[in-house]
Design brief:
With about 425 residues, the chain is α/β, with parallel strands linked by helices. The chain has a single domain, classed as Rossmann fold. The protein is built from 13 helices and 15 strands. The strands form four sheets. A six-stranded parallel sheet has the order 7-1-8-9-12-15, sandwiched between helices. The chain has a four-stranded mixed sheet with strand order 11-10-13-14. Helix 1 runs parallel beside helix 7, helix 6 crosses helix 7 and helix 10 runs antiparallel to helix 11.
C-alpha cells in the first residue's frame, strides 16, 4: 500500500537542545520531565513544492495536535491526513525504522521542544507543581515526540537523554522524575530500558506513569478501518475523511505499538467483529485480521511493532522507583462491529464493543504494570482512581497531590 524511500535517519526536523531558562533552582526537589499523551505534543508541518498528494496545496504550513485551537483553513482535514501519511519501503535489507519516510516535500518538527508550551493540555499539572515551588521551563520540562513514530525513530533516545541531562545539570545535579500520561509512558519505558543502569542511577529519581498504555489497547485496531481525527479525537463523518484518516493510522508504526498485544491480552476481548462474515477477531488473531482485510503492508508493520515496548518480563522492568496511577469503573470502547473489512468506514457508535476501563483504555491495559510488583528493591505502587476518566487523570487534585508527595521522597538505593 505504501510506497517510500529510505529516510536516512530522523523523520522529524527538531529544534536544537540547550539550557532552557533561568538560574538553577535550590537543592531539594527533583526536576520533572513530562512525556505527553498520544498527539498531545504540538507538531509544525511545513510543505514545500509537494506533488505527491494531488488536490492539496503544494506549499504552506499547518500544526497538528489534540485541541489545536487554530486548525488550518488552507489544508483540509483530508489533506492534513494525506500529507502526514508515512511512506513505507518494503525492503528487508533496511532496518524496520529506516523503511519509513515523509511524503516528498513534507517536514515535521516539534514546536517549542522541551518547554511546557509544547504540551498545553497539562495546565493543571503545571499549576500544581508551581504551587509546590516549581518553575516552568526550568525544573518542569517536556519530552515531546511525534506521535506517529515509535521511540526507535526520529532521534528520540538521543534527544530525550540530552533533555534529561540538561534538566539534571541546570537544577543542581538533581536526578529527574519522569511523568508520563497514556502513550507517554511507552516512550519513557523505552528510554529507561535502553539506558544503562549507571545512567539511570545518576539521572533518574523515579517514574510516574499515569494510565500508561504499556501493552496497547483494543481500540487501535478499529481505527485502522474507521480513522479518528486528531484535533478532537472525533470520528470522521465522510468516507473521504475516514479513508484518509484510516490510511494515516495504517502507515504509522506507533499505531501498532499502541494496539493490544496478544502476549498480554490473548483472546480475552474482541477488537473487530466483521458483520459480512460473522467472524470475530481478538488481539491474538491480528495476523488473520490483516490478511483477511488485504492489508499486507500493515501485517508486516504489525508483526514488528505490536508488543514493541517490552515491560512485563524481569529483564524489561524499568529499574527505578515507580508510582503508577490508573482510572477505572467506566465503560470503555475496546473494539467495533464493522460492516466489512474495507478501509474508510464511518464509525457507528451502536457497533462499539465495550468493557470496563478508564473511558479510553481497558482494565487489562491499565493493570498490566502490576508485573512490576516483582521488581527487586525499587518501590512500586499502582493507585486506582475509580470514576476518573483517562483525560481527567492528569488534572485530578488527589493524583497531583500524590505526585508532589512522591517528588519529596528519597529514591531507593539498590545494591
Amino acid at each position: 500500500m505504501f510506497d517510500g524511500r529510505w529516510f536516512h535517519g530522523a523523520l522529524a526536523a527538531l529544534v536544537s537542545l540547550g539550557p532552557l531558562a533561568g538560574p538553577p533552582a535550590p537543592r531539594g526537589r527533583p526536576p520533572v520531565v513530562l512525556f505527553p499523551a498520544f498527539h498531545f505534543t504540538k507538531l509544525q508541518v511545513t510543505v514545500r513544492d509537494q506533488t505527491a498528494v494531488p488536490g492539496c496545496p503544494r506549499s504552506g504550513a499547518f500544526q497538528d495536535w489534540f485541541r489545536n485551537d487554530r486548525p488550518s483553513r488552507t489544508f483540509s482535514q483530508v489533506c492534513r491526513d494525506r500529507l502526514l501519511t508515512l511512506r513505507y519501503r518494503d525492503d528487508p535489507s533496511l532496518p524496520m525504522p529506516a523503511r519509513f519516510s515523509e511524503q516528498p516535500g513534507v517536514t515535521v518538527r516539534i514546536v517549542d521542544y522541551g518547554r511546557t508550551g509544547s504540551a498545553p493540555y497539562y495546565q493543571a499539572l503545571y499549576r500544581r507543581l508551581e504551587a509546590a515551588g516549581y518553575v516552568r521551563d526550568r525544573d518542569i520540562r517536556v519530552a515531546g515526540y511525534d506521535a506517529r513514530l515509535t521511540p526507535d525513530m526520529g532521534g528520540f533516545l538521543q534527544r530525550t537523554r540530552a533533555l534529561i541531562e540538561d534538566a539534571y545539570h541546570d537544577n543542581g545535579d538533581r536526578p529527574v522524575h519522569l511523568v508520563g500520561h497514556s502513550n507517554g509512558p511507552l516512550y519513557a519505558q523505552y528510554l529507561l530500558t535502553h539506558s544503562s543502569r549507571a545512567w539511570r542511577d545518576r539521572y533518574i529519581h523515579g517514574f510516574t506513569p499515569i494510565a500508561g498504555n504499556m501493552p496497547g489497547q483494543g481500540l487501535m485496531y478499529p481505527l485502522m478501518f474507521t480513522g479518528q481525527n486528531i484535533q478532537d479525537f472525533g470520528y470522521p463523518t465522510t468516507r473521504e475523511n475516514a479513508r484518509s484518516s484510516a490510511r494515516m493510522y495504517q502507515s504509522a508504526p506507533s499505531t501498532y505499538m499502541s494496539a493490544a498485544d496478544p502476549a498480554i491480552f490473548g483472546d480475552r476481548e474482541v477488537v473487530i467483529r466483521d458483520a459480512s462474515t460473522g467472524r470475530s477477531y481478538t488481539p491474538r488473531d491480528y495476523p488473520r485480521l490483516f490478511a483477511d482485510a488485504g492489508l499486507r503492508t500493515a501485517g508486516k508493520i504489525a508483526a514488528y511493532y505490536i508488543g514493541f515496548v517490552r515491560f512485563a518480563d524481569p529483564g524489561s522492568f524499568p529499574g527505578v522507583d515507580v508510582y503508577a496511577e490508573k482510572g477505572s469503573g467506566l465503560p470503555t470502547v475496546v473494539g467495533a462491529r464493522l460492516a466489512n473489512l474495507t478501509t474508510g468506514q464511518i464509525a457507528d457508535p451502536a457497533g462499539f464493543l465495550r468493557r470496563e476501563g478508564d473511558g479510553n483504555q481497558e482494565d487489562i491495559t491499565n493493570n498490566a504494570v502490576l508485573a512490576w510488583r516483582a521488581m527487586p528493591c525499587h518501590h512500586f505502587s499502582l493507585t486506582g482512581n475509580p470514576g476518573v476518566n483517562h483525560g481527567a487523570l492528569p488534572e485530578d487534585p488527589a493524583l497531583l497531590d500524590r505526585l508532589v508527595a512522591a517528588l519529596g521522597r528519597p529514591r531507593t538505593r539498590c545494591p
